[in-house]
Amino acid sequence: MFSVTVDLNARSIRVIKPEDWLRVKGSKLLSRIEPFRPSNSLLPYAANLRPIISNRLTYGRACIRGQRWVPHGRITVGGFAASPLEYLEGVLLGATDAIARDTATASAPAAALAQWAEEQADLIARSKISPGRATHSRRRCHCMRWRPAKASSGTYGDSIS
User: Fold this and answer.
1) pLDDT band, residue 44 (cuts 50/70/90)
2) Each residue of 82-132: pLDDT tens digit?
3) Residue 30 resides in a domain
4) 14 is a domain residue
5) Is 34 exposed, middle or buried (0-12, 13-18, 19+ CB in 10 A)?
6) CB 24 within 8 A of CB 40
7) By Cβ atoms counted within 10 A, which residue in 4, 49, 98, 108 is the most buried?
8) In a domain, 126, yes or no
9) Domain count within the chain
10) pTM (2 decimals)?
11) Which of 88, 96, 113, 103 is nearest to 34 (CA)?
12) 2 assigned to some structural domain
């Protein structure tokens, strides 16, 4: 596992510990992904971040975001951002065949994503996300629950039933 350290005044300071994305506050994780975003835009989504788990392995920590064209989620490969994700905030672990790691596929099992999407639908209904975005977010959850093979591919298509 990798750490990120910064040398400051002849001292080495560790700023990111291995696998700390599993434990840090949601707002800290989201600001790490998008460091120049205003913190008030992170809060509704930070509260909804949930792990994606199957057989005691964590495949990601994310939440549904109903807004397209704003890829705030990332698929990571070996700790490096590889592909942006529309409709999600957070991180999914993935795999790639490309040496450049500029494309990736989420490695979470479809059943784990479907279970996570069910929980997201409940969270969105109770969240502080604006009604318009919440409606679109619930549609994304529905799409992921009924089309888990599409959800596991790392892209989510354009059609909403």
Assistant:
1) confident
2) 888 888 899 999 998 877 777 899 999 999 999 999 898 888 888 766 555
3) yes
4) no
5) middle
6) no
7) 108
8) yes
9) 1
10) 0.72
11) 88
12) no
